[in-house]
User: Fold these one by one.
Assistant:
Number 1:
Amino acid sequence: MSEKNHRVSRRQFLNYTLTGVGGFMAAGMLMPMVRFAIDPVLKAGEDQDMVYVCEEADLTNEPQSFNYKVNQVDAWYESEEPRTAWIYKNEDGNIVALSPVCKHLGCTVNWASDPANPDKFFCPCHYGLYEKNGDNVPNTPPVAPLDVYPHEVREGSVYLGRATPKGEA
């Protein structure tokens, strides 16, 4: 048989075969590297464990700011992230733990820092107001209540979880 009767010449066949084998070898080497690079990003976020914040005996009827740290993992990087919570005991003696992050633009709210509203949380960025229980005051910039922290009391110590929107905790 002559080469004219074949659709693919020997040279083309060899070229196609070597290209295919080379492609499979390259893919075999690159896939583990790509998997290594993107695997941490694709992992589901872990729920935050409850973190110690303060002693229950330190709480009063007046909201107090408590600072604490949370271990945070971002892909390959682990760090301690500083956090803050406003915690107090309400009239029924139940613990209320609120996030200090304003729902309008993310500024930090303070308790009783506005002389015109001494019994409210005040956001100085755009004069947002929240009631003591975290509900937003109508006709002020915040459009939603402050987030709340799920909490536990273990042997007289207060532990907080990840902040969630009010009503979901």
Number 2:
Amino acid sequence: MTYYPDRNDEIEEKRKLAEAFLENPARDAFATLVAHGGFWATETRGSIDHYVDDIVFEDQTPDEVATAVERALKDTDGLEEVLDLDGFGWATTTELLHVLVPDTYAILNKRAVAGMEALGHDPPNRQTASVEEYWDFVDDVQEAYETYDLRVVVNESESAPDVPENHTDLEAADAAFNAHYDEDAYDIDLAALREARTGGRRLEVPEELWERIEAEVAGDPTYRDVEDFLYSAVRNELNRDG
């Protein structure tokens, strides 16, 4: 499914539908939301009615779903409560929360994973990610947005529509991820962007030192992986000397 050139309009429509469901929780309001052409998480579901009636609302009510979502909008500690809802994985949960509070939640779906991998990050598995891994992912998306000027990348593209000025950094990053994912239609290649910005440079570390760092990182949740450790060490040293 492609979201251009009307992607921004679809986002605004999706936001209105999400707000309408929260204001008046009802089965039909929820079905209209997830059946919308711009609701990406349900694009592969064969039957929206089956998803809504036999999965989401088989054992829980629209009010229960809306209450969980409202809590997560007010307090990020409520994220796990939404994830525990029937029929809500990472893609559905983060898409819904992102459209309502786009400065807090980043979408974790296959497009975001592909985009972040192209930019040299190691995003979590969108099927098994923990809440802690998700918030690390959000930080990484923000870092990638800043490092690669992703709003500018989208706005300077010849094929993707500009990111509206009122859209957040996380929304701009998601626009870049979506355009990158549909590589046959749009001229945004995040892997090529990374290559151009870094010149293909990679840290070369002796095997023995690499293994020592791996052992250190394995017991320290501060770092995502060995490269994260190494880049952090370099940044800290540069900041110290500066």
Number 3:
Amino acid sequence: MSWVFVMLLAAMMAGFVQGVTGFGSGIIMMIFLPYLLPINQSAGVSTLTMVVANIMVVWHYRKYLKWQRLVLPFVIYMSTAIFSVYLSKSMATGHLKLLLGILLVILATYYLIMNIHSIKLKNIPIYIMVVFAIISGFFNGLFGIGGPLMALYFLTISDSKENYLASIQTFFLIDTFCITSIRFASGILTLGNLKFVFIGIIGAVIGTILANRLVKHLNLKVISLCIYGFIGFSGLYYLITAF
């Protein structure tokens, strides 16, 4: 039953990080899940674990949503994600771990730089959006980590915090249903994987509640830097053990 402990811990950390920083649950889940499952199954379980919280946020901010802003990025994103889901079935585990390690190190470095220097983008041209959607869709299909660049895109084009949350959460809720259906249809996910999801949902709810209660008492910048450092070290571990 050690998998229950690992799944609860991973989901609690993911829920806590999501509650404190507003993003990153998939990144945290993918640090732990490859110890329990193949990487492509880990991606599917990670995506489903946060679906309940995702639905709650979408419903809460539904009136702020502007659908027209989601269509083009989602079509590009999902096209790439479908391709990479099937690609993940044929890639060697060592290659997947190598790519995951590189991705985690890049994400940790990116967030550290953005956080330390408080860098904010004021405009993202459409060709950059296309690049963001392609990269995000590709890594979402492989690892269930498609959020960072799309979050940056929607944050830049949104006219309020509520509009941003409505956009990004609706985007990934639709993504969850589409990509999960594909993973089940392709045989990557099975009904047997749902036991991980159910335990994960419990952990994610606990982590989110803890974040909501503690966030006022935490130094968010220090916490964020610790989280990014942990992600970076985890990425280095996957790089070292890839082969």
Number 4:
Amino acid sequence: MKGIKMKLTVVIPAYNASALILPTIQSVLDAVDLEPEIIVVDDGSTDDLVGALEPLIEQGKVMLFRQSNSGGPASPRNKGVASATGEYVLFLDSDDVLVSSQILPTLAQLDANPEVTMACGNFDITDSDLNVTIPRNIDRYRTFQAVLKEPLDHAAWLISSNDAVRTLLQTNYIGTSSVIARRAALNRAGSFDESMKNLDDRDMWIRLAQLGPIIYRSDVFYLYRDVAGSVSKQRQVEQFRERVKVADKVLLNSANRQIRREAKKWRAKSLLKIGYILFHERGDRLNARSAFVGSFASWPTLPAFKGVIKSLLPERLYQRFAKP
């Protein structure tokens, strides 16, 4: 591959990541015959992240931008993309570790398929010490495996825009740290949605897939540290509300019948989950009823109908019927 110097920009949002970020960056630097632009965006860290990165900054291997804490990865990702000069952008979380040998083959396939907006790949789930607990995680996603119909080689597939979007509305098969996106496509898709704290990445992958086909590579691209207390395990109701918001965006922008069907079903399931949590865990009957009604209106199901009925019953009457 010719012209790979600064062909790739790696964007790493970082918050209190000083203890783990050096192996993350080293996994990029270990890539043979690649001189990447590495941008770390410090999202208001309170640890000594600057001190940890100082040697790499002095060597010109890392660019560091600092900003006040935004509460989520969307803002630092946007800052990184806005500062990028590479043709492609790799989104790398600050505690994940790449399989560096996979970067150049992925870039080569993107070069060979100019209509593709992004590539993604498989990953292993590990503990905090990088011991693999779940190998080849995406192999378990049967719904996604069914759309791998157009091979590019023995370990890579081209997925049509419609299949990619439709399946993303069923299951999130894209690991963030495996994504290499065409910067021109990112500019067309627009910024990460900074109002989202959990689903800004999935929202972006859907928007990129709406612009064109994507590539999936089944080789393991990175190691995902399953660290307790990560953002992805917090704020259940907020996560489901963001799913509703993403579904609404798809319904607004897509005329494809299959995609709209999946968006409506995803919206309904998310509202149903919100209703269950509000009703059973928080005792918020009024807002639970609103969620159940919204679920039934999006995609009528018996559980949503039952949710509406039980939220209308007086508390004493519901408790009477709910007893085993």
